[in-house]
Write a structure and sequence with these properties.
Elements: E1 3-14, E2 19-25, H1 27-32, E3 38-42, E4 53-56, E5 59-62, E6 68-76, H2 80-87, E7 93-100, E8 112-118, H3 125-134, E9 138-145, H4 154-159, E10 163-168, E11 175-176, H5 180-189, E12 196-201, H6 204-216, E13 221-224, E14 240-244, E15 250-254, E16 261-263
């Protein structure tokens, strides 16, 4: 059951001129959230902007006793709503509704887990990495961005024991190019019968390439799709995704309800 709360801003950590991590006091949502779920948020109290925006739960924040105290959001300012979240200050209030949506399937310790992130597609993987670590799952993060200035939280994942495979389009950190190239090489070299789960979040072109690459090697893949959402609860049909059904034809699902985590091999990417 989702909660609708007026969440106080606890902290605003600026990562760059456009990216920040916003910490919100929302213990009920934090206690209920599972990796891959999202919240609908709105920083303004009036009608501008009119609608809330969906954000993956980035971190579950805990108090000194280890109890869930809040959550954080990874934000990139690209419009009025994200500008308000970028400029929010401790003590401000953000309307926060969640947790919503279908989460990731957390692999068990007999499998390896490979997370593939592009840009702000990193957002659902902090909680997933934490959950995988709790199960002692060997985890790798394939993380690509335009430059090293847009690769964030690397030390966070290292502390969780996550192996990092990095790419940048300008070659400023890691391999030069797109993240699918090292993913393809590693999949080709991975033992065919060794259990492996692939997770991906990022731009749709990257998700499609990841889905096709995982399918080529017969590996299961779950993707967290990014869609514009008006309500987050299936009422507005603004977030539909075309998918194959068991009979080989296709149908549309609402990603806020059936997703945002969906089986990659069932999505119609073209």
């Amino acid at each position: 059951m989702p909660f609708d709360v007026a969440a106080d801003v606890m902290a605003n950590t600026r990562l760059s001129a456009d990216y920040n991590v916003l910490a919100l006091s929302a213990p009920a949502i934090a206690a209920a959230a599972t990796p891959g779920q999202f919240v609908m948020v709105k920083a303004a109290s009036g009608d501008d902007p009119l609608l809330r925006r969906p954000f993956s739960v980035f971190e579950v924040l805990r108090d000194a006793a280890g109890a869930p105290a809040g959550l954080s959001l990874l934000n990139k300012r690209i419009g009025p709503s994200t500008e308000l979240l970028y400029r929010a200050q401790p003590g401000d209030t953000v309307a926060c509704f969640g947790p919503l949506g279908r989460p990731f399937t957390v692999a068990d310790r007999s499998a390896q887990a490979w997370m593939v992130a592009g840009g702000v597609g990193l957002a659902p993987f902090a909680t997933l990495a934490d959950a995988l670590g709790a199960r002692s799952v060997s985890t790798t993060l394939f993380y690509g961005a335009r430059s090293r200035a847009e690769l964030f939280y690397l030390d966070f994942f290292r502390r969780l024991g996550v192996e990092l495979v990095l790419t940048t389009e300008d070659g400023s950190l890691g391999e030069r190019g797109r993240i699918i190239a090292p993913l393809d090489r590693r999949l080709a070299a991975h033992a065919p019968h060794a259990p492996l789960m692939v997770y991906a979040c990022g731009p749709e072109g990257m998700l499609a390439a990841c889905a096709k690459t995982a399918a080529r090697y017969g590996r299961p893949c779950e993707v967290s799709v990014e869609r514009i959402m008006g309500c987050g609860m299936g009422g507005c049909y603004s977030c539909v995704v075309p998918m194959r059904n068991d009979r080989g034809s296709f149908h549309h699902v609402r990603s806020c309800i059936a997703g945002p985590v969906l089986p990659a091999d069932q999505i119609l990417w073209e």
